[in-house]
Structures are given as structure tokens and as C-alpha cells.
Amino acid sequence: MVAFIIRRLLQSLIVMFVVALVAFTLFQFVGDPINQLVGVETGLKEREELRQRLGLNDPWIVQFWRFALNAVQGDFGISYQHKRPVTDLIVNRMPATLELSLISALFSLFVGVPMGVYTGLNRNGFLSKIFMTVSLVGISLPTFLIGILLIFVFSVQLGVLPSFGRGEAVLVGSWSTGLLTSSGIKALILPAITLGLFQLTLIMRLVRSEMLEVLRTDYIKFARARGLSNSAVHFGHALKNTLVPVITITGLQLGSIIAFAIITETVFQWPGMGLMFLQAIQNVDIPIMAAYLILIAFFFVVINLIVDILYYVVDPRLRIDPSAAHGHG
Amino acid sequence: MKKTLTALTLAAATVLTAQAVEAKTLKWAFQGDAQSLDPQSLNETFTLGLLGNIFEGLVRRGPDLAIQPALATSWKIVEPKRWRFNLRKNVKFHNGNAFTADDVVFTYQRTMKPGSDVKTRMATVKDVIKVDDHTVDFITEVPNPILIAEWATWYIMDKEWSEANNAVDPTDIGSGKENYATRHANGTGPFMVKSRETDVKTVMVPFAGWWDKPKHNLTEIIMTPIGSDATRVAALLSGEIDMMYPVPVQDMKRINSNPDTEVLAGPELRTIFLGFDQERDELMYSSVKGKNPFKDLRVRQAIYHGINIDAIKRKVMRGLSTPSAIMISPKLFAAHAGEFKRFDYNPEGAKKLLADAGYPDGFQVQLDCPNNRYVNDELICKTVVQMLAKIGIKVDLLAQPKAQFFAKILRPKRDMSMYLLGWTPGSFDSWNVLFNLHGTPNKDSGRGKFNVGGYSNAKVDALVDKILVETDTAKRDAMIRDAYKMTTDEVAHLPLHQQGLAWGKKKSVDLVQRADNQFMMYYVNMN
Q: Which residues does chain A have within 8 Å of residue B412's beta carbon, measured at their own beta carbons?
């Protein structure tokens, strides 16, 4: 187990290296940072000097190598736009993104699973049909549109929830949290729903189809034959067996929630990493782009690792000696 | 006795309640944030505008953009190349330090260092000499009648504070280190920065020790950038913020139809124009090989006649633009701007001109256009494409975000044949326009930096040199007119319009909208 974790962490280094390499080849096409760094009246000579000092005249592979050497030592450079160390910026912005992502994931899980179970058990119920229709909307409407619709209804028309920002955040240690103030929690509701809606529908549909599948299996029939109560059959036996794919999807989706928080953060002006990344793209802020992409790659690797470990917990078959497990493949 | 006491208590209570009622917090949003609080780090409208509430220059601009005394009370040209400024006495920085001539000399030195982006403010200045604690002399290389034109955004920093906080040099990302002045400010202006998180929130409070009498009634200001247009509009409609800009033109109606909000619209100084590559011998991205049709005046005239500017104003800009015949806002050249007229919209005449030039069937060319820089920039370009199709010129449009667009079209790359660009002269003066947009490009002097098309006329260049040093206003204006006459007749560029400003605000907020699009909070009154 320990060897497995160490191996995966080493692999993550390779993943991050490759992501950085690909990112740097792409940075050649995002535009010229110098134009964003100086006013329009600044002369060509000064622009050229600045470009030279920032090392932007070097071939991309040289720039990449310089970046990689510094990054290994934990130095991601200075943001062109914010003029502050990128590491500080990311540390400042990360809590907002992680809180939003986590709450969205929990929301989609705790609303999605019961809805999935319900629609799986009452296939033709009226409520099921409503759930299924709503889930279609969740899957097909783009995130930014959902966000703007929610803002229109709850901020502009009803005036009950804020349309932008994170409310009042308080510092707990070095972690700024919005979960401890009422304005922070209010500000979190709309973005969390916007970000979690797609996952919610995905989880709901997944649980539903898995439930339908499992309910047809022999051991469920056997459980019923044993005279177990409905709830014991549904939740003790059926639901438990649907959870392996749900965990996989939720886990993998958590990575995408963090990564795709970009759009939700932009719509709600949520001060997280995603918003910062989007602005960095607009302004060709290469140090932030590079650091963010590597960080997201790292998140994906770690989340996958956690998902793999969770399998062990949920599925006893995987705890058998791996050599034996390979035997029946 | 008892009565007096009651009266006193009552009076005190009234004062207290009055003060409680008077707590006025202005919450407003812009689409982005100032990059830095360092006043010498970036020459950009919004950054300098925000800083203009915290810092001050020797002079400032009033609501009508007229120059007013600020940190200098008066000035005169003692010799053609020596300007003497009398500095205001008893002015304090936010930290209590006194403002003296040393701070002016220090700011000059800081401005000239690497990393500073406001060197143009001191372009002709050779030296700054302290005469006494409240008098400084500026020595220029040549007589410069518009020396102070750009000084309203040349902000004075505190020498002692900068030295104590290791901020003697301007922010320079090339150094790889953070500068204290990036997130901290110590100016002499009406507002102090209480807290700041870049791109998230900036809180400001009035500076009690400001030398001038406040015209505002604010007790606190919260500035939040909101990048998404729809969200910014929603935040104003829902009453979460009191003011925001820019208003997307398509949302103006929505804001005006809301009972509590309104749009404040006015002309801006920026001129939007089309440019043509007149430098290359063969046009890029064109069906014409071996020659450059834009070198032919008749082709440029044809395109001018092919543009229906009223349609652009009505359909694209929804009335929020002022069609322009010259490359500067008429407001900034009141003396003679009225003498210039746009070419009429005449597609038939345009076709004839094209035929005369040897392109009876037109030709094909590419238009480069930004899509997130100016008001409805991409839509303007699309409309131009349709209009030019009617006179036989087939235009392929390449609209890109500004980061890619500027890198592609500007010198040294100049990877374009036709482009759309906007220009505001930082000095509010025509010399800036003639020097940067119409002068023959010259890398050493910096002339023609933004003359991307490469228009070149030796007579215009000669006038540009003369205008710079001419101190007689009437003579100077006449020369400016002559230069514009040549560049207009020869269609050096094709001016389209001055785009409009649109600010959204609650009706209960009184403010001043300046045509340079800078928001001065010291004019704000909240009712």
C-alpha cells in the first residue's frame, strides 16, 4: 500500500513536468505579455529592454528550463499583473476555490444520491419525472447561463442573495474562510449551486441506472426472499453496491469541479484561483498560468490517488493479495 | 440650568445622530482592477484614475478637464527652458510627513529609473532643481509649451516614506521581487487606502488632513472589480453597488428602465479609427500580388466613401458615439476642429475611385480587429466588412483578444494589412496624436510609434517638430490645423468616431463624469 502511494506520487511528478512542458509550448501563442505590462505610450526601445530582462526573447525551451529549475525550488516567479510572488497569490486564492468546490461537491453528492435512489426505486413516479426533466436542464445548460439566471432571479428580482463576491471572509490561521460569516455563507449559495448542478445531475443519473441494474441481480432477489425489509434491501444491499462507480465519478469530478470553477468564479466574481487564471490568460501572465496548470495537474493526480484508496475501503475484493487478484483477469 | 443641560444633551444627541446618518459608503465596481498602487509603474487610464484619488500631481484636471493648481499653487516660465513652480505649503502626506521640494525632485528621479512606465511625463525634462523648500525649477531640453499637460497623472511620492520602505525604485517585475509600493500607498490626496486585495476589494477612507476642502460627503469607499458584464449590471440593478462602469451598450435601456438607476453617458476622448499598411511593397493577406493597393490614395479614399458612419453610430453604437473627421476629439482641438468634415458616404463614387485605381472588381484583404478592447470593437469591424463588400472589397475579418491582437499588429511585428485601433492622447493635445500616429516611424526618437500603417509625409514631420516648440498658441493651432489638413486629405488613417462613455449609477448618487473616463471620487455626493 505504502509502495503504491509512493509510486503514484512519483508518477505525479512526471505528470506535472509534462503539463508544464505542454503549457510552455502553448504560451508561444497566447500573445505578448509586454503590451499588458506597459502603457500605450511606452517606446519600442523600452519594450524591447523589458522583454529582454524578463527573458522573453529566449527560445521557449530555455524559458521552460529556467521555470522548471525555479519551480523545483518552490519559486514560481513574480506575477506580471499583480507584481507579487505567484506562490503568495495562489496561497491567498486557493481557500476560496477549495471551499466553493468542496461545498459544490457535497451539494451534488448529498442531493444527487437521494434523488438517484428515489428515481431508481420509483421509476414512474411523478416526482421522478420532474427530477429527470430538471436533470436534463442541468446537463444541457452551460454553466455561465445557469449562473446568470440564478443571479437574475435571486439577486435582481428577489434581492435575497448577493450577485458577486465572497462576502465577509475571516482568517483562520492563514486560511481565509467564508464559512463562518452569514454574508460568506449567503454569497456561497448561488455559486455552489451553479458549479454543482452538472455534477448533481450526473450523480443522480448514475445512481439511478446503477440502482436499476443492481435491483435486478440475484442477491437482491435472495435478500427479498429472506424477508428483509425494503429499506434493508435498498440501502443495506443495493445502494452499497452502486457506490463504487459513484465514488469514482465523484472523485474524478471533484478534480473537474476545481478546474472548471473558472467559469463559475468569473460569473460571480468569486475571488478564487480560477478567476485569477482567467484574468492571467487575458493578460498573458505566464507565471500564474504555468503555476496554476501544474497545481491543477497535481490536484488531479492526488484525487485519483484518493479514489483508488477509497476502492480498497469500499470493495473488500480489492483487499485480496494483488498477485491473486491478477490471477482471474 | 437644567434647561440648558437638556438643550445641550439634545444638541449633542442631534450631532451624534447626524453623524450616524452621515456615514456614507460608496460601493462601486469597474471591469478590472488597478495593477499596482505604485504611481510610476503603469501608464494606463484606470490605474492612474484610481490613484488620482490617493495621490496628487503638481497640477490636476477639473470636471471639464481644465488644468487646476494642485500641489503647485502657481508656475511661470522664467526662461524658455526653465519653468518655476511654487509649491503649496502645509500639505501633508497620509502618514503625516510634510510635502516639500525634495519630494518633487525625488519623484522625478524615481520616474527616470528602469521599471518606470511614466517617463513620457518627463520626456523633455533635463533636470529638476530645488530652489528652496517650496520652489522647484524644471529645466527642459527644448522649449516645451505643453510641459504640464500630462502632469495631472504625474503623482508625487513621499521621499522619506519611500526610503524607509525600500521603495525608492519603481516596481520592476524584471527584478523578480515585490515592491512595497505595489500594495501600499502614501499620497497627499483626498483618500487613503485602508485595505487592499488586488482584484478582490479595495477600501478607502477620506484623509482628514487633506489640504483642499472636500466636496464629497463620503465616509468610506469600497471598490470591487467585477469582470463579467452581466454580473456588473445585475449588481447595480439589485442595489448591491452604487455605481459601476463601463455599462455595456446593450444594457443601457435595462438600467434606465429601473426606477432607482440610470446611465450617465457622454463622449469620451478616445478616437477609433481604421489604419492601412502603406509601408510594404506587397500587401499581406491580399489577393493583389506584387503591389500594395493601399499606397494608392484613391483606394484609401474609396474605403472612406464606402463607410456609412451614421449606420455604425445608430446600429452598432446605439447612439453612443460621435462620428469624427479628425484623429483627435474635437473637444481637444476646439480652435479649428469645426473646419474638418468627414467624406460623405458614397458607394458609387467609391467604386469609381477603385476602378480608376485599377481595381474595377475590387480586391481581397484582411482586417485585424480586437474583440475586448473598445466598445463593440468586433461588431464595428463586422459592419465595416459588410459595407466594404458593397464596394467590391472582400474583407476577411480576424478578431482576437487584445493580448493577441496587439502583439500581432504593433511594431516591430506589423503583421497586418488593415486594422482597427483607438487612441487617446495622454496629454490631451494634438502634438501627441501627430507625433505618435502620423509622424514617419523612427525607432530612435520614438516618432510614429503607433503609426502602424507607416504613413509618411516629410511636411507633416517638419510641422510636428515645429509644433513641439512653438509657444504662441494661435500660431501653434494653425500649424496643427495644417498638419491635420494634410493627413486628412491623404487619408493617413480613417477616423471613425469618438466612442461614448457609459457609467451606471443609482439616481441618489451625484458625481462628475470626466471625458477622460477617470472616476474622481472627491466629487461624489450620496443622498
A: 44
Mutate to test the interface with A, among B203, B224, B231 (most CBs of A within 10 A): B231
Q: Is B237 on the interface with A (CB under 8 A)?
A: yes
CA distance B262 to chain A (A): 15
For β-strands B25-30 and B243-245, DSSP reports them as: parallel
Report CA torsion sign: B477, B478, B481, B486.
Answer: negative
Three-state secondary structure readout of B179-193? CHHHCCCCCCCCEEE
For the beta carbon of residue B453, count every other beta carbon within 10 angstroms: 28
Shortest distance between the Cα of A266 and any Cα of chain B, in A, equals 6
Query: Hey, what's the cell of A155?
Result: 439577486
Least reliable range by pLDDT among A37-41, B62-66, B128-132, B220-224: A37-41
Report the complex ipTM: 0.84
CATH number of the structural domain spanning residue A229: 1.10.3720.10
Asked if the structure places residue A35 within a domain, the reply is no
pTM: 0.85
Asked whether the beta carbons of residue A165 and residue B410 sit closer than 8 angstroms, the reply is no
Cβ neighbours of B426 in A, within 8 Å? 39, 41
A3 in a domain, yes or no? no
Interface contacts (A, B; CB < 8 Å): 148
3-state secondary structure B6-47: HHHHHHHHHHHHHHHHCCCEEEEEECCCCCCCCCCCCCCHHH
pLDDT above 70 (res B10) = no
Residue A1 lies in a domain: no
- CB of B277 closer than 8 Å to CB of B303: no
A151 and B234 within 8 Å at the Cβ level: the answer is yes
Residue B42 is predicted with a pLDDT of: 87
Residue with cell 486585495: B197
On the CB side of A34, CA atoms within 13 Å amount to 24
Mean pLDDT value across residues B416-426: 93
Alpha-carbon distance B276 to B272, whole Å? 14
Task: Give the structural domain span for A133.
Answer: 86-327
Please provide the average confidence, as pLDDT, over all residues in chain B.
92
Considering the domain boundaries, does residue A12 fall inside one? no
Phi, then psi, of A288 in degrees rounded to 5:
-70, -45
Locate all alpha helices (DSSP H) within chain A, ordered by sequence. Answer: 2-26, 34-37, 44-53, 60-72, 86-121, 126-140, 143-150, 182-215, 218-225, 230-231, 240-267, 273-282, 286-314, 322-327
Q: How many CB atoms lie within 10 A of CB A329?
A: 4
pLDDT, tens digit, 9 for 90 and up, residues B198-217: 888 999 999 999 999 999 99
Chain A partners of B174 at a C-beta cutoff of 8 Å?
50, 53-54
Q: Is the pLDDT of residue B513 over 90?
A: yes
Residue B53 CA to residue B188 CA, distance in Å, equals 9
Domain count, chain A: 1
Distance of CA B281 to the CA centre of its chain: 34
- Cβ atoms B493, B460 nearer than 8 A: no
Q: Which residues of A touch B178 (CB under 8 A)?
A: 78, 83-85
